[in-house]
Amino acid sequence: MIFENLAEKLQSTLKNLKGKGKLTEKDVDLAMREVKLALLEADVHYKVVKDFIKKVKERSIGSEVMESLTPGQQVIKIVNEELSELMGGVQSKINISSKPPTVIMLVGLQGAGKTSTAGKLALNLKKQGKQPMLVACDVYRPAAIKQLEIVASGAGAIFYSEEGNTNPVEIATKGYEKAKTLGYDIVIIDTAGRLHIDENLMDELKNIKSSIKPHEIMLVVDSMTGQDAVNIAESFDQTLGIDGVILTKLDGDTRGGAALSIKAITKKPIKYAAVGEKLEDLEQFYPDRMASRILGMGDVMSLIEKA
Amino acid sequence: SKTTQNLTGKLDELFKGHIEIDEELYEEIEEILITGDVGFETTLKIVDMLRKNVKKKSIQDVKDVREELKLIVEEILSGDDSNLKLEPKPAILVIVGVNGVGKTTSIGKIAMRLKSEGKSVLLAAGDTFRAAAAEQLEVWADRAGVELIKHQEGSDPSAVIFDAISGAKARNTDVLICDTAGRLHNKKNLMQELAKIFRIIDREYPEATKEVLLVIDATTGQNAINQVKIFKEAAPLTGIILTKLDGTAKGGVVLSIKSEQQLPIKLIGVGEKIEDLQDFNAKEFAKALFSSN
Ligand SMILES: Nc1nc2c(ncn2[C@@H]2O[C@H](COP(=O)(O)OP(=O)(O)OP(=O)(O)O)[C@@H](O)[C@H]2O)c(=O)[nH]1
Ligand SMILES: Nc1nc2c(ncn2[C@@H]2O[C@H](COP(=O)(O)OP(=O)(O)OP(=O)(O)O)[C@@H](O)[C@H]2O)c(=O)[nH]1
Ligand SMILES: [Mg+2]
Ligand SMILES: [Mg+2]
Fold first, then answer.
1. Nearest C-alpha of chain B: how many angstroms from A197?
2. What's the B99 CA to ligand 2 centre distance in angstroms?
3. What is the mean pLDDT of chain B?
4. pTM for this one?
């Protein structure tokens, strides 16, 4: 792949500048073209890229080329610092309510990975000694309830569904009441996939929200998502208000620029990364690793230190 | 559907602000293409071509730039035949793709369409891995009113395909449609499993007309290019189904795919209902790419 070597490209673009003192606007412009290309190929949103480049440029121009670093590395360092800053610090914990049950609601587009993630979260929380209950509120997709049931049993979680009931708001409410009565710690609501522009289905989510007041509304996003990630995240956040993001399918070879776009637009933390189809495949999300992945540079710090 | 509405929205807005053909206009065109997931390099190529054509044809009017732009996009996308080839019968249609793109749903839609054309259809539940995958396909089989061959969860998918081929032969079925598990293209063992399915098909059903469609989610960004490249190595792809075009994503990555890989887009998915399947139309796609949502 071409962009594996953004780092190398930057170094060769700027290699003649070693020992010249400060970086000039012209030097930086050349470098920024490579950065822009890498970010766009990684699916970072056009506008986010533009803002980002502007910021990095401002910081790079006139910055001292340190003795220990080549100019290329100097720019990489700035790019990486700004990216990590934008991605935020590690934020992997679900807010557990002091008054159980803690209610977590998973929302997102069709096929993003909500149902699988519900199972993974349940297993994760189970391992922390909690008793989670999974509530099947997808009454539309063929065999969605059955899918959640299988996933719940795999995770050793309690499963709640209502045969024949086609009202997700009711199911959520009754499931929640039951969890409260029986003293379960966690309620995870699996909802049907929907488009952010589908008003009826977005209203349904609002109604579930107002009925059971979730502690965490998590937007589940496929890491292969392209430029539309900003529209999706923005719409879900505006209509529903999200508390965090879970990025799925990171076991693929996507650069995952959607992560950056979503973070920049919603300012909401990405809390978990799903990295496979098995129930164990849920990890804490590391913003700095994501930054390197988006740029396609492997471990940036080690690259810089190599010089 | 979305592909037929808003034909002029964004482009009109774009050209309203521009009286002259200037750098700003080209930059805005670039932005529309990139935010439609066309990809940076392909975008630069298209804008380059546009500049040349504007010069060559001495285009003066901003309105005509729009028409020229649509023509270029259309031309990249059209060319080969985008009809499903299921004749002579018997035919086998295999649906492959990464996780959650809409394979199983598309099969339900295609089954319905073929049946209403008077063809006999059999489905094979080749996803034995994902929870309730066979049950999901079974619901679609019922909706379309066609039969289904399935095994237990966890069984060998090649065995399902093997049985389904026998079943299709015994029933004299016109079209056998095979579902497969979602798999990320960078998983070697899963791609080998897929290759094995095609070896079985070649061995057991050499007389069948083959269509192998890769399903791509229109929401996907540049990764779709890798998907095509790597799936091609394990599966004899004949075309693409582009799903979820009822959303706000434009699916522009198919432009890069089309110019690099020469794989026709045959069908599009525009919703979750059984009738939400359409033939691909380059002209409509080009219009929708430049429409605002
Ligand atoms: N490789 C991989 N596959 C995943 C991951 N997360 C989910 N999947 C797969 O993606 C597909 C869709 O996952 P689901 O959990 O059904 O997605 P969903 O959001 O519930 O889908 P809908 O309910 O139809 O909207 C399935 O094949 C999952 O196995 C992941 O992290 N890695
Ligand atoms: N809006 C919309 N949703 C779609 C379309 N096609 C499929 N879906 C939805 O996308 C989700 C995933 O569809 P599936 O057919 O299960 O996808 P798949 O590729 O078989 O998934 P796996 O077998 O898990 O890899 C479901 O919720 C479908 O209803 C479409 O054209 N538009
Ligand atoms: Mg689901
Ligand atoms: Mg499927």
1. 7
2. 9
3. 92
4. 0.94
